[in-house]
Specification:
binds pyridoxal-5'-phosphate, about 425 residues, Aspartate Aminotransferase, domain 1, Aspartate Aminotransferase, domain 2, lyase, 7-stranded mixed beta sheet, PyrdxlP-dep_Trfase, about 15% strand, PLP-dependent transferase, alpha/beta
């Protein structure tokens, strides 16, 4: 041990206090300890830098250090080597230039709304948007004088009619939460650029995870202005933490978001940042595995749906040819997330009860929100909950989130649960 220390570093606390009455007391010695570990340590893990307080060598350094451009450290809230590292790796994932971290995916959405919208502005949300984003619009944003319009994600023409000079922010989601319609992202973007050039276009890219398609290079010169991710889902991968991110390429847009981020006090915990950093290298493998299992299960359920008297009316999954927006998915995507939704037959007696019975009869799928973790999950929804402006779905819905279990076990589980629900 001793020979790894630099020659000028004592291995133990200095000065015997009995011999030197001016020596600091034990508490002070423990706090102001002189030992410095040798520099140059490297391992696969990114060191977990924890801080509220960050030290400066001088008052001048304190006054001149800047956090906004990430050239230095001022306070834990404004970044540490660990959080800057996660931001840089997330930027790589999508080919973005700037990334900010937020305490949850929803906090990232809320930050974008708060940073970019003001009284008199109009916000556009897809009708199948992640529901808490709509709740924020209907409460806080409304109170702050912001008008929200919702659009059918599969009707680019009707979307165009909602755009105008007050349109300031447009959210896109691909595929849509729960019902998984895949919109014509290029068509929506081209329409928005033409009819509302002043609007910022934000994509909730949680489903694509930066892997299914390139949000900043959608082809035909089209790009989202920023993306938001719930890192909670695939990037973290454990179902054990909450975090969100905002990525963009434009320095001026990033500066606006970063300024609001700093003022709003959106910090993330270093241990959670470490957990996401640990999850990132396996993200493409997990995403591909969950994609493959979801497709196999979707194909199996579609075959079940084709049988007379089946409880399942339709399988919603963007890679299925009869799923809404399939052609848009096929034109843009090289992968799909591990999510599928079963529409139950509305005519079945006790339709909603059967969907609930199905969910409760599942053994490998646990009942719970979120996705992207190792355990498969199931949640029943009423169609009107998901598409308030008018649901194209008639039967009750069950969203299945695929974990990392063996595909044959999940298929057998769905079959036994369907048989129980049909009784
Ligand atoms: C989960 C989710 C969010 C919110 O993420 P949290 O970290 O749970 O707040 C946002 N958008 C989509 C599409 C999501 O699935």
């Amino acid at each position: 041990m001793a020979d790894t220390l630099p020659p000028d570093q004592p291995a133990n606390a200095p000065a015997d206090p009995a011999a030197d009455p001016t020596a600091p007391g034990p508490a002070t010695r423990l706090i102001h300890h002189p030992y410095r570990a040798p520099a140059g340590f490297e391992s696969p893990a990114v060191p977990v830098a924890k801080a509220s307080t960050v030290f400066f060598d001088s008052v001048a350094a304190m006054r001149s250090t800047r956090w906004a451009d990430k050239s230095g450290y001022t306070y834990g809230l404004h970044g540490t080597p660990t959080s800057f590292t996660l931001e840089a790796r997330l930027a790589t994932l999508e080919g973005a230039s700037h990334v900010l971290l937020a305490p949850s995916g929803l906090a990232a959405i809320a930050l974008v709304d708060q940073a970019l919208l003001g009284p008199g502005d109009t916000l556009l949300l897809p009708d199948n948007v992640y529901a808490p984003s709509r709740n924020l619009a209907e409460h806080e944003l409304k109170r702050w004088g912001i008008t929200t319009l919702t659009y059918d994600p599969l009707d680019a023409e009707a979307f165009g009619r909602l755009l105008g000079p007050s349109t300031r922010l447009i959210w896109l989601e691909a595929a849509g939460s729960v019902t998984l319609e895949f919109p014509d992202l290029r068509g929506l973007l081209a329409t928005a650029r033409r009819l509302a050039p002043q609007a910022v276009i934000a994509l909730d890219n949680t489903w694509g995870a930066g892997l299914a398609f390139d949000a900043f290079d959608l082809g035909e010169g089209l790009s989202a202005d920023l993306t938001v991710h719930a890192l909670t889902k695939y990037p973290a991968g454990g179902g054990d933490l909450l975090m969100g991110s905002i990525a963009c390429r434009d320095a001026e847009l990033h500066a606006r978001l970063a300024a609001a981020h700093g003022r709003l006090g959106l910090g993330v915990g270093a241990n959670d940042v470490e957990a996401v950093l640990r999850g990132l290298p396996s993200l493409p493998l997990r995403y591909a595995a969950q994609d493959a299992t979801a497709r196999a299960l979707a194909a199996h359920c579609a075959a079940q749906a084709a049988r007379p008297g089946s409880l399942i009316r339709r399988v919603l999954h963007p890679a299925r040819p009869d799923s809404p927006g399939h052609a848009h998915w096929a034109a843009l995507c090289r992968a799909a997330a591990g999510l599928l939704t079963l529409e139950f037959a509305p005519e079945a007696a006790e339709g909603p009860r059967r969907a609930e019975r199905f969910v409760e009869a599942l053994r490998h799928f646990r009942i719970g929100y979120s996705w992207g973790g190792p355990l498969s999950l199931a949640v029943p929804y009423e169609p009107a909950q998901i598409r308030p402006a008018g649901s194209p779905y008639r039967g009750p819905l069950v969203r299945l989130c695929i974990g990392l279990e063996d595909v044959a076990d999940l298929i057998a589980d769905v079959d036994q649960a369907l048989a129980q629900a049909a009784r």
